[in-house]
Design goal:
By secondary structure, the chain is mainly beta. Helices cover 13% and strands 37% of the residues. It folds into 2 domains: 158 residues, no CATH class; 114 residues, Rieske Iron-sulfur Protein. The protein has a 5-stranded mixed sheet. Strands 5-6-7-14 form a 4-stranded antiparallel sheet. A hairpin with a 6-residue loop joins strand 22 and strand 23. The N and C termini lie far apart (69 Å). The N terminus is likely disordered.
Length: 340
């Protein structure tokens, strides 16, 4: 019995030691992980968001940005002026359990699946940053995740990839025109914040303003230029909003796979879909938003990827792993990324 107890004690010590060793390992350079200042949960996530109708929104100007999701007929929008203060919203869109993660320093909004390892979790703001980018933590295991890397970089779930859902980002003026019947996140978050005040001064427009070091630095485009990055295995490509001075659809390939990229600088949106050859010569169409394209056969595509009219009505185009952010962040996280 003494031997059995001794073995059990030794096994427990070994297990604790292994866990400590696992938590000491990082997939990113630990000496480049910065303390953002407020500390863990110092920037509070919103875990019980409230929503209002488009007509009830009185805190946004037409030029403000909003990011959102359309899924199974449910359309929800999350305004940047709220996300600037909270960075993470734990929510559900129909039966999708999502964490809407947003980093104001890299300008990246990415929706993660909160179902991890078959269990539902929530994510919080760790207070740590890597390359100016948000490091969320999952509250089930206290593991740290890199938002732009899309994976767990420290903790029990180290190496696990985040599953992401497609988002749409645009101006509030465009959102109102496209989704007049949608739900919009309310400023009644449970926290006292001035959502009419952007907390980072001229950061969004000043290409020389960075709060933390960048590594590597890629100056092929202005640092704060907004781009869509398509991530396709080890082949990645960036599409600048300036490619869409005139709204249009671009047919292009990334890593041997074909995509359709549609954007408008005025409306400030860029979306990408997998090109399966079904659509023939898609051209931009802004006459009947949210329809953004019509092909030679009369198929009409909306911004969520659904074909809403024409011979292929009722089908939906798949979306690649893609998101919008400041150029400098793609240059830092995906060195040498191709620019369209």
């Amino acid at each position: 019995m003494k031997k059995l107890l001794l073995f059990a004690s030794f096994s427990l010590v070994l297990l604790v030691a292994c866990k400590k060793e696992n938590f000491s390992e990082w997939l990113i350079p630990q000496d480049e992980v910065q303390d953002g200042g407020p500390g863990k949960d110092g920037i509070p996530s919103v875990d019980n968001p409230r929503f209002i109708s488009v007509d009830e929104v009185d805190f946004l100007s037409d030029d403000d940005l909003i990011v959102g999701m359309s899924y199974k007929g449910v359309i929800k929008g999350y305004p940047h002026p709220i996300m600037d203060w909270h960075e993470i919203v734990n929510d559900e869109v129909d039966d999708r359990q999502i964490a809407l993660t947003y980093c104001p320093l890299t300008g990246t909004a990415i929706a993660w699946n909160r179902m991890v390892d078959g269990r539902t979790t929530t994510f919080g703001v760790s207070g740590k940053l890597y390359n100016n980018n948000l490091i969320p933590y999952d509250r089930e295991t206290d593991s740290y995740w890199s938002q732009i890397n899309l994976n767990c970089v420290n903790g029990e779930r180290i190496g696990m990839k985040a599953e992401i859902f497609p988002l749409m980002e645009m101006t509030w003026g465009s959102w109102k025109a496209m989704f007049p019947d949608s739900e919009v996140m309310s400023t009644e978050t449970g926290f006292s914040r001035n959502y009419n005040n952007y907390p980072y001064g001229d950061y969004r427009t000043n290409n020389n303003s960075y709060l933390f070091p960048r590594n590597p630095i890629d100056d092929r485009l202005p640092g704060k230029e907004r781009v869509l990055g398509i991530l396709n295995s080890d082949n990645n490509k960036a599409y600048s909003i300036t490619n869409f001075e005139e709204p249009k659809a671009i047919y292009d390939s990334v890593g041997g796979e074909d995509f359709i990229i549609i954007g408008s600088k005025e409306a400030r949106f860029i979306v990408a879909f997998e090109d399966n050859g079904q659509l023939d010569g898609l051209t931009f169409n802004a006459a009947d938003l949210p329809i953004i394209g019509t092909d030679a056969n009369g198929n009409q595509l909306d911004i969520s990827g659904e074909i809403v009219a024409g011979p292929l009505a009722g089908t939906k185009l798949d979306s690649p792993d893609a998101f919008i952010g400041y150029w400098f962040s793609f240059g830092a996280f995906y060195p040498g990324i191709e620019i369209y």
